[in-house]
Amino acid sequence: MNDPIITINGLNKTYEGGFQALTHIDLTIQRGEIFALLGPNGAGKTTLISVVCGLVNPTAGHVLVDGFDNITHYRQARELIGLVPQELTNEAFETVWNTVSFSRGLFGKAPNPAHIEKVLKSLTLWDKRNNRLMTLSGGMKRRVLIAKALSHEPRILFLDEPTAGVDVELRREMWEVVRQLCDNGVTIILTTHYIEEAEEMADRIGVINRGELVLVEEKAALMSKLGSKQLTLNLHSPLTEMPATLQRFELSLAAEGYELIYTYDGSQEEDSHAISELLTALEREGVTFKDLNTRQSSLEDIFVDLVNPKERA
Ligand SMILES: Nc1ncnc2c1ncn2[C@@H]1O[C@H](COP(=O)(O)OP(=O)(O)OP(=O)(O)O)[C@@H](O)[C@H]1O
Questions:
Q1: pTM for the whole thing?
Q2: Are 78 and 55 in contact (CB under 8 A)?
Q3: Do domains 4-224 and 227-296 have the same CATH topology?
Q4: What is the ipTM of this complex?
Q5: Hey, whose CA ends up nearest to atom 17 of ligand 1?
Q6: Which positions fall inside the ABC transporter domain (predicted)?
């Protein structure tokens, strides 16, 4: 698939005061995908989407939105984008219908009640269309923000931390809404610091840390790399070095020699043979253990390694 809808080239952002929030970001978003931008607090996620949406000026670099430069052709580029901000900023006394219709007007689009109706129905807000926003639950308020962002029929939707601070049920509901939008042909870019959210939702994942994009990969490829497993044996007595007869196995020592760690590809048939061979070799060598456990590496391991490499060293 190579049908870019957003192309970001050499983007830098230094805020007044000298803080560099983005460092040379190159990124292409494909039409129709769900792209998750994953990063810890303060990594630069909001800055990046604000630059792409034309709300913050870059210090250097370019952004093309479906071929339109987002500065020289701001209006055309912006019209293609819907942005769901992080904070709930709704007009408390306004009705759902009026708020969403008004948002459409802000883009200079002629009223289109049929479109507003479709959006409200798709977000199960139709029954609430005459309710004032202050009377809605938190989940409904979030859906109103999405409805506002979709009111002018954008082809790309940015969701900035769509599920920050919401409960599990509402998170699942938001995921479902996002999936449906994607099924309707809207390209989705969401920021999150929940690994689970990126894992659940995204076709591709980009990891941003301290203003740098440190990884961009198809989720499926990333997950297949995560197949590796670790078997940890807690030894009775520590090993100071690896016995020669064990060197053919992929072993390492930890916890001052009290832990023997065997790393293997959990998806292979041969692995089970290798494990029994290892256990036999240990017995011959007189290496005994009091406990053992296995674990599978996760996206979280990769994320922690990328974002904080020293922590796990
Ligand atoms: N207007 C500004 N002036 C100066 N520094 C700013 C400004 N806006 C953001 N920053 C700084 O830029 C860095 C990146 O902020 P940004 O909001 O983009 O991060 P984020 O990844 O979205 O974080 P979070 O997950 O907490 O929302 C932070 O260190 C922040 O303090």
A1: 0.79
A2: no
A3: no
A4: 0.96
A5: 46
A6: 6-235
Domain ranges of the chain: 4-224, 227-296
Given its phi and psi angles, is residue 160 left (phi above 0), alpha (psi -120 to 50 degrees) or beta?
beta
Residue type, 152: H
CATH topology of domain 227-296: Alpha-Beta Plaits (3.30.70)
pLDDT digits (tens, 9 = 90+) for 243-288: 999 998 889 999 999 999 998 876 666 666 888 899 999 999 999 9
CATH architecture of residue range(s) 4-224: 3-Layer(aba) Sandwich (3.40)
Q: Which two tokens stand for residue 32?
A: 């129709």
Q: For 219-232, how does the pLDDT look when each residue is reduced to its tens digit (9 = 90+)? A: 888 776 666 788 99
Q: Is 99 in the pocket of ligand 1 (CB under 6 A)?
A: no
Q: Which of 25, 41, 45, 192 has most ligand 1 atoms within 8 Å of CB, for mutation?
A: 45
Q: Is 44 in the pocket of ligand 1 (CB under 6 A)?
A: yes
